[in-house]
Each structure stands twice: as structure tokens, then as C-alpha cells.
Write a structure and sequence with these properties.
Layout (H helix, E strand, L loop, with lengths): L2 H21 L7 H17 L23 E3 L9 E2 L2 H15 L6 E7 L2 E8 L2 E7 L5 E3 L2 H4 L16 E9 L2 H13 L8 H9 L4 H6 L3 E11 L7 H10 L9 E3 L2 H13 L8 E8 L2 H7 L9 E5 L4 E13 L5 E12 L2 E7 L3 H7 L6 E5 L7 E5 L24 E2 L8 E2 L6 H12 L11 H9 L6 H4 L4 H5 L6 H14 L4 H7 L7 H11 L2 H6 L2 H5 L6 H12 L1 H12 L22 E5 L7 H10 L3 E2 L9 E4 L5 H9 L3 E2 L1 H10 L6
Helix pairs in contact: 1-2, 12-13, 17-18
Bound molecules: 2-(butylsulfanyl)adenosine.
The site of 2-(butylsulfanyl)adenosine has 15 residues, from β3, β8 and β11.
Length: about 675
């Protein structure tokens, strides 16, 4: 075959793979194979520049624009949609539709309303010739060079393409790409991008197509504009199927349904899954499916009568930042938070929002008096995304962390390498003490029902408690002195406190509020050491030998127990009769053949889950640790073992495959010949 033929063949094959991957979301060829084909294409283009097809995959990214974007008149106006803000408004739209048709509609297309920017794509004889923004609906901007860089926009259609065709869709920035972009911004110390929609719009209006290409935008096509020489079709759904056959990317979440009740079901389903997708949606678009019905009801000046956008509550709103306050948490860490003009966002009214930590706040550079973007997606805690700089009044000062703690007056310090500044007041800091006690009684820790934030506050203010052990000395009489407390609430709290004495050891360890010790680490510590005393006397090395616990956590555990105040606290908790150990095992039922030996597990072991392999070793008295050192007895390595295998080989630690592992379990170390 000559080079020109091979070139055409490669183009066709690579386009087909791209179509499957980007439009259909399938992967059937492996990356290496694809790369080999792509390299072959590039090699031919380098050797024979005269063969280069202007729509070749290598030609997606063109030269930077010298001038602005040229205006483009839309051949057919790009309408927007009317909104329904409630199910009642949806019903009203449907009644109008049915009313003007004089009969019920012939089905509905239900689609997600993608939160990006509208785009119009024109194909002539199957080739992408123009991409333009919506603009004012009549005239948009020519952004062809940038849109060509988007891989889910085919440069060439598949199969039998019509003479001329215009389609419409939404360009968006996948949420995962948005997060990755902001992670890169953070690394560079640059301010974060506000949201995927603005970033997508900005990316499409870059002068340099290479910049647009680097953002990894994507497209969903949702509408056929005009067409010359296409097949005769009756419904919007058929049109979308046809566009999909031509290689355009149609959202598989679209559904064609019969009745308005089906539409409502789609809406509730789509709402429930709003956050499961890699793109943001701001509603559901409902379209009368039959093209004849659409033609019959037509358009108003602004929008089609045959479609409506059912709006979901906005997840972002602007509001004014009144002040930045700080809170001292249970470990002394200082967290700044925003106090704002109340704003309805993500379905609730928000006035406070976390600002995470000082460096994050300074990076975002929000200042009291700023108009800020507040975001609350799903059940996520409200967050201040950033300032709207165009609306910043003159003379606002950059925020600075106060030097002294507003609760206790002690200095606030930021240790190098730590993200969060800390109050140095220890438990003399009222804020820290309250947070600590509240945490101790919370559900994930000692689960003392009735010891909520308000009660903790009342108890601390009345000087009835100063540390967790004091909780166990509380009496009915003391509680009855508190305002609003009666015999029943007092008895309930006392019995909840009593019940908490038998909480599992892991919950107690978590409740102690040791820096970096969350529920999982607390569980590992309890499992490994079995008594609080043993955790307390463990060395940093012994703690960090546990898989999943690093040196930072280990030294935090060690220094907590080394503190005399904490030792005294542990003593008083013991005196109060709190369970400080795991229940005795029924004695080892298996011979302790692996006593004194330590193992590291890596990769996937045929026939064992990771937990099962670990338990099998531990039941025989062996230890499972997180990383390989020269002291490790052996590495148990399954399929796809990575760096741990290399490390074991480097330091000369024996490596066991599954078969040898089973031998080890059955016959002890002698099973390893
Ligand atoms: S149909 C004539 N379908 O929402 C009908 N629009 O105000 C044209 N949008 O600017 C729109 N997802 O950019 C339609 N599945 C979808 C959509 C969608 C997002 C955007 C579109 C338009 C706006 C409506």
C-alpha cells in the first residue's frame, strides 16, 4: 500500500477510535496501540507534508488569533428557554401545550440542562466549518479555532453527512478537570477559578487555541438547528439518534417518555443524582418530542412554546461578606469563617461559611466588604469560592490573622509546615475547650446523647466541667441548677453518660481529640494495642509500624500520652470506670505460628481480600505493617504489586506469592522452603 493510502486508512481508523472514546464513552483499544497508530500518522505527515489533511487529528490546535473573534449571524435565531421554578409551573406549561395542541402531546424528551455555554456548530459536507457562540441570539462570535481543539467535537462526521447542517449544544468543563486545574493553581500559589461554567466560557474565548486545548473541555449536543439534505424524521428523539450516528456526542442521560408523570419521575431521579456526574447541571429541559407538535405551537419572541427548563435550586450565589471571624477547634487549630448577608443557595439560607485556613483565605483574598460567590453543592458545607473583583469597593484591606486569640487572649502561632495556625492557650481557651468536650460526647466518639453544643456551653459556663473526666462526676443536683433543666432531662443525661462508659476502646481514643487521630486511626490503634495503657506506652516506631499510620500521626499519639495533663486525664477516666480495653479474645484458637514475625501485604491476592489476608496473619500472632524495611519478615505480593515489591527486592526481604502465603498459613515458617 502506498503512503497516501495508508495515511487515509490511519485517519479513518483513528477517527473511529476517537468517536468511540469521546462520543460513545467506550474504550476498546489500549492506549499503546492507539499511540502507535497516532505516531505512524505523525511520521507520514512529517515525511509527506503534502498529504496533510486539514481535518487530520494533528490539526486540532491552530495558530493564535491576531485580532478579536469575528461576528457570525446565526442563520436561525438561537432561542433561550422559559423557566419553570416549581412543579406547578411545569404543570401550567404542560396545560398550555396540551391546550394549544387541542390534544395531549405525543411524548416528551427529558434532558439534563448542562451548565456551560451554548455553541452552534456548522458542518458542510460532513466537515466542521464553523463554531460560534450564542451571543445575543442573533449574532454570536466565531470561535472555530478554539472549538476545534475539543476532542468530543468531531472535525469530520461519520457516514452519510448532509450538505449543510447546524447543530447546537453545550460546551462544559468536566468537574474533574476543573478540580485538577484548581489544584494546579493552588500549587502555583495562584487564585482559584470560581466555577466550571465561567472557566469553560473563558477557555472558549482564549486567543491561543493551545490554551483552550489544555483545558480539556467537552460538549453535549442537544438540538438540531437547520439541515439541508438530511433524512425525513418525525421526532426530536429520532433527530438525536441520527446526530449520534453521525458521530456527535449526545447525552445518554436523555430519556423519551410518554406522560407528564413520567417527566416528573425523570426530574426527581435527575435531581437525586445531580452530584454523581462529572458535569454541572442547573435544571432539566423538557421538549415536546413530535416535530409536528413543535411546529404547531411555535415560538414566542424569546423562546419555544414546545420546551421548558425546569430549574434546580442554584448552587452558587453572590452575597456580601460582612466580616471574617475565627473559631478555635478541639485541637487548638484556628479556622477562619465568613459571616455574610443571608443568601438562599443550594436549597438553604446560608450566613456562615468556612474559609478553611489562613493560606487558603489569603490565596482567595476575600476581604470584608467584598461581594463573594457562595457555593453549596449537594449536602456539602457552604463555601466561599472567591471575591467578585469587579464589584470590590475601593479601600478594602487584606485580611490578617489576629495575633491574639479572641477567646483566651493567648498568642496565635503558625508553625512552619502546618496548614493551620493554632491558639496557644490550651484548654484555658474557652472555644477550644467547648469544641473538645462537644467532640468527646459526639456520636462518633462517646455518643453521650443530650451533650450537645448548648449543654456543653452551659456546663462550661457554670464551671461544672473542665475536661472529659469531669463529665463522669456530674450529678442530678448540679444539672438541676442549670437554667431550663428539669428532673427528666437531668436523669436522661446522667444515664447517657453512664451508658457511654462501655463504649468501645476505639471510640474513646477518637474522643480524646489527639491531633490527626480520626475514627479510622483510632480503630487501628485499639485493634493493635488492645488497651489504652498499651497505646500510651507504645514508642513512635511501634505506632508507625501499623499499616495506615505514618510517622506524623505516630509522633502526635506519642506526644499526647507523654503530656502529664493527659496522663492525669487518663487516670481519672479509669477511676470513673470507663472501659479502657478491648474485650478479651476467647484465647487464640489457632497456633501462634507467626508470633514475632512481621509482614507487608501488597497487590491483589487471589482468593484473599486485603482484610482477610491481614486477619489470617494476625490470628496466628503475626503483625501486618505498612511498609517494607530490612526488618520485615516477608512481603506477601499478589498481582500488580508496585513499589513495595521493588523495595523488598532492594533490601533483600523474601517475597511470597499466594501459594507460598497459603503454605505459610498452613505450616508456619517451616512451610517456606
Ligand atoms: S434546548 C430552542 N437543551 O440552556 C431550544 N438547552 O436557556 C434551545 N441548555 O442557552 C435550547 N442544556 O445553552 C436545550 N439539553 C438542553 C440544554 C440546553 C443546556 C442551555 C442552552 C440554552 C439555555 C436555555
Amino acid at each position: 500500500m502506498d503512503q497516501a493510502d495508508r495515511y487515509r486508512e490511519l485517519l479513518t481508523e483513528l477517527r473511529e477510535h476517537n468517536h468511540r472514546y469521546h462520543a460513545l464513552g467506550l474504550t476498546i483499544i489500549d492506549d499503546n496501540e492507539y499511540d502507535a497508530l497516532y505516531r505512524e500518522l505523525v511520521a507520514i505527515e512529517e515525511a509527506h507534508p503534502e498529504l496533510i489533511d486539514s481535518q487530520s487529528l494533528t490539526q486540532r490546535v491552530g495558530e493564535p488569533l491576531e485580532t478579536g473573534f469575528a461576528p457570525v449571524s446565526h442563520r436561525e435565531r438561537m432561542f433561550s428557554l422559559d423557566n419553570a421554578m416549581s412543579i406547578e409551573e411545569l404543570d401550567a406549561w404542560n396545560e398550555r401545550l396540551v391546550g394549544s395542541l387541542g390534544r395531549s402531546g405525543r411524548g416528551y424528551s427529558c434532558e439534563l440542562k448542562i451548565d456551560g455555554l451554548a455553541i452552534s456548530l456548522t458542518y458542510e459536507r460532513g466537515e466542521l466549518v464553523r463554531a460560534s457562540t450564542r451571543g445575543d441570539g442573533a449574532v454570536g462570535e466565531d470561535v472555530t479555532a478554539n472549538v476545534r481543539t475539543i476532542r468530543s467535537v468531531p472535525m469530520v462526521l461519520r457516514g452519510e453527512a448532509p450538505e449543510v447542517m447546524e447543530v447546537r449544544g453545550e460546551i462544559y468543563l468536566p468537574v474533574s478537570e476543573f478540580k485538577a486545574l484548581n489544584a494546579r493553581q493552588a500549587e502555583a500559589g495562584a487564585p482559584p477559578y470560581i466555577n466550571p461554567r465561567n472557566t469553560a466560557a473563558g477557555s472558549v474565548r482564549q486567543k491561543d487555541p493551545a490554551m483552550t486545548a489544555s483545558r480539556n473541555l467537552a460538549v453535549w449536543i442537544y438540538q438540531l438547528g437547520f439541515v439541508e439534505g438530511g433524512p425525513q424524521l418525525d421526532t426530536h428523539t429520532q433527530q438525536m439518534q441520527w446526530l449520534s450516528d453521525l458521530g456527535l456526542r449526545i447525552n445518554p442521560a436523555n430519556e423519551t417518555v410518554k406522560t407528564i408523570d413520567d417527566v416528573k419521575r425523570y426530574i426527581s431521579d435527575a435531581t437525586a443524582h445531580r452530584h454523581d456526574r462529572d458535569y454541572e447541571t442547573d435544571g432539566i429541559v423538557i421538549k415536546a418530542d413530535a416535530l409536528a407538535d413543535q411546529a404547531e405551537v411555535g415560538f414566542t419572541a424569546r423562546s419555544p412554546r414546545w420546551a421548558i427548563a425546569y430549574k434546580l435550586p442554584p448552587e452558587e450565589k453572590n452575597t456580601v461578606l460582612r466580616s471574617i471571624e475565627i473559631n478555635v477547634g478541639r485541637t487548638g487549630a484556628v479556622t477562619p469563617y465568613a459571616v455574610m448577608e443571608p443568601v438562599f443557595v443550594g436549597g438553604v439560607t446560608v450566613t456562615n461559611a468556612t474559609l478553611h485556613n489562613e493560606s487558603e483565605l489569603l490565596r482567595k483574598d476575600v476581604r470584608p466588604g467584598d461581594t463573594v460567590v457562595v457555593r453549596r453543592a449537594g449536602d456539602v458545607i457552604p463555601e466561599v469560592v472567591g471575591p467578585v473583583l469587579e464589584l470590590r469597593p475601593r479601600g478594602l484591606r487584606k485580611w490578617r490573622m489576629p495575633e491574639l486569640c479572641p477567646f483566651c487572649g493567648n498568642p496565635i502561632v503558625l508553625t512552619a509546615g502546618e496548614a493551620k495556625a493554632k491558639c496557644t492557650g490550651g484548654f484555658t481557651c474557652g472555644s477550644r475547650l467547648r469544641e473538645y468536650l462537644y467532640h468527646f460526647g459526639s456520636r462518633g466518639a462517646m455518643d453521650i446523647e443530650g451533650l450537645g453544643y448548648k449543654t456543653v456551653d452551659a456546663l462550661v459556663s457554670a464551671e461544672l466541667i473542665e475536661d472529659p473526666a469531669d463529665i463522669y462526676g456530674l450529678t442530678d443536683e448540679q444539672l438541676l441548677t442549670l437554667e431550663g433543666w428539669g428532673a427528666i432531662s437531668a436523669t436522661n443525661l446522667i444515664s447517657a453518660i453512664e451508658r457511654s462508659k462501655s463504649r468501645p476502646l476505639a471510640k474513646l481514643i477518637f474522643g480524646l481529640g489527639i491531633d490527626h487521630v480520626g475514627g479510622t486511626v483510632a480503630g487501628l490503634l485499639a485493634e493493635q494495642f488492645r488497651t489504652l495503657a498499651a497505646v500510651g506506652s507504645a514508642t513512635v516506631e511501634q505506632v508507625s509500624e501499623i499499616g495506615g499510620i505514618g510517622p506524623e500521626i505516630a509522633s502526635s499519639v506519642h506526644s499526647w500520652f507523654a503530656d502529664p495533663d493527659n496522663q492525669a486525664l487518663v487516670g481519672r477516666l479509669a477511676d470513673a470506670g470507663i472501659t479502657l480495653e478491648l474485650p478479651e479474645r476467647d484465647g487464640p484458637t489457632l497456633p501462634q505460628t507467626l508470633d514475632g514475625l512481621s509482614f507487608v501485604i501488597t497487590g491483589t491476592l487471589d482468593g484473599f481480600s486485603r482484610d482477610a489476608a491481614k486477619a489470617a496473619i494476625q490470628e496466628r500472632g503475626g503483625k501486618v505493617i505498612g511498609s517494607v524495611s530490612s526488618k520485615t519478615t516477608a512481603l506477601v505480593a499478589g498481582e500488580n504489586a508496585g513499589s513495595k515489591l521493588a523495595k523488598a527486592q532492594a533490601v533483600g526481604v523474601p517475597v511470597l506469592d499466594v501459594e507460598s502465603f497459603v503454605n505459610l498459613l498452613e505450616r508456619g515458617p517451616d512451610g517456606l522452603i
